[in-house]
Amino acid sequence: MSIHAAAKPTAPEAGARPFYLWQDKIPGSPGKVLRQQPLEQALVLGKAEKGIRILYASQGWNDQAVAVSGDVLIPAGDAPEGGWPVLAWAHGTVGVADVCAPSHRGRDSRDTDYLNQWLAQGYAIVATDYEGLGTPGTHAYLHCKSQANGIIDAVRAAQQLGLNLSKKWMVVGQSQGGQAALCTGALASARAPEINFLGTLATAPAVNWKQRFNEGTPDSPSPYVGMTLLLARGFEVYEPLFKPSDTYTDAVLQMMPYTDTLCVSELVGMGMKANLTMGQSLNFVPFGKAPGAASGAKKMDVPIEGWSAPVYVAQGTADQMVRDQDVYGLSAELCDKGVDVTLDIYEGAGHSGPMSQGFDEFKPWVANRFTNKPAENNCEMINSLVQ
């Protein structure tokens, strides 16, 4: 759910260039590479020696075979014995238009800096665009299983590229990607036992949507209406009960077509400029009363069962997009299920703050996973936050 500056999108049709269009039948083997090509040099991060754009088979929100795009970044130098350890990167909200796909458009300075730090530590980065970003169809925004499938199958695909990658891997994500990373943590080992999943690092994970949908009054400001349009586009994909025409007022419906051509910063700016209240934006207040909103939110929930590896969660107390109490609550639920959870709280940090402020803490925790050191947890502290 990240909101941050990015380059202005190119022409709408640019995201649908031939690389992203798979005309043949998609194989029923998740993770199979469909095609690959070198990334343009402008998209290869500074600490990477090479970058490869990939198109691979995965399973979408409805378990049907889909083609998903992404990219792989390899550090400079020689791979260690056993191959480059792999970090699967789950990006935050960029939009739902094809031009917003990171493998096509590139990354903003925040994500570039963050990934360069991991590359400098000797980790290969495997990044999915998620279902429907860059490739045909609409992005299944925040659908838990769809995102996790795309992440896991990207790692499987990367193993086929001859890049000397280790089969040991972890997932790292921010905001929408933090939620996607947590979904991956619950599903990875069962979905792909042939690769060795070691853990999850999630910063500012976008969780607890059902509760968020049930808050607000008609007089409440609606500054992030541009974000709710992305939710609506996602619900149009995977929640048949949800109808934007029934949910939104005309003032918002006229903005809807822009989701097909603009990326998140432009959409958010448009919504803020409109300066609408919830009552002026929605026919149902709060949003959770709209038909399909509650059932759609369930498909965004992070599973609390199925975990096989530890998780590290980092959250800022001044985050205006993801509430700290929601993150504490999910962390406590995972602790109750016996998951080794480490929660770091950054006082006064905003939505992106933990990514930069926490790296020195993340670094040894991630390294310890790859050297098979036992994970600790601070579940006692976490449980005290929600009592």
> Kindly, what is the distance between the CA atoms of the first and last residues, rounded to a whole number of angstroms?
27 Å
Give the overall shape, derived from the CA principal axes: globular
Alpha plus pi helix count: 15
Query: Could you give the order of strands across the largest sheet?
Result: 1-2-3-5-4-6-7-8-9
Helix content: 25-40%
User: Cα-atom Rg, whole angstroms?
Assistant: 20 Å
Structural class: alpha/beta
Uncertain segments of ≥5 residues (pLDDT<50)? 1-15
Strand content: 15-25%
The chain-level mean pLDDT equals 94
Sum up the structure in keywords:
single chain, alpha/beta, globular
Notes on the structure:
This protein is an alpha/beta fold and 387 residues long. Helices cover 34% and strands 18% of the residues. It contains 15 helices and nine strands. The chain has helices at residues 102-105, 109-120, 144-158, 176-191, 209-213, 225-238, 244-247, 250-253, 264-274, 278-281, 293-298, 324-336, 353-357, 359-370, 379-385; strands spanning 33-38, 48-59, 65-75, 84-90, 124-128, 165-174, 196-203, 311-316, 341-346. Strands 1-2-3-5-4-6-7-8-9 form a nine-stranded mixed beta sheet, with helices on both faces. A hairpin with a 5-residue loop joins strand 2 (48-59) and strand 3. Helix 3 (144-158) crosses helix 4 (176-191). The two termini are 27 Å apart. Residues 1-15 have low confidence and may be disordered.
